[in-house]
Design brief:
This protein has about 70 residues and is of the alpha+beta class. It contains three helices and two strands. The protein has a two-stranded antiparallel sheet with strand order 1-2.
């Protein structure tokens, strides 16, 4: 699903990252799930979304694309 989403919306400057460990909450300091982290090529967190979102909404896609241009 992630690969299809990235291809459909031409998100070429981001790589998806899925971490499947039991202690993910501690590693990233999460307060709850779902949480989405945007991490740049230098492994720095540049954005965080807590809660559920409509990943297909135009507002979300515009927001996400701002990070692909900056980093």
């Amino acid at each position: 699903k992630i690969k299809f989403f990235f291809e459909k919306h031409k998100l070429e400057n981001l790589d998806p990252y899925i971490y499947n460990a039991d202690n993910i909450e501690n590693k990233f300091g999460l307060r709850g799930l779902p949480t989405t982290l945007i991490i740049n090529a230098k492994s720095n967190e540049i954005a965080r979304l807590e809660g559920s979102y409509d990943w297909t909404s135009e507002n979300f896609l515009k927001w996400l694309k701002t990070y692909t241009k900056v980093y």
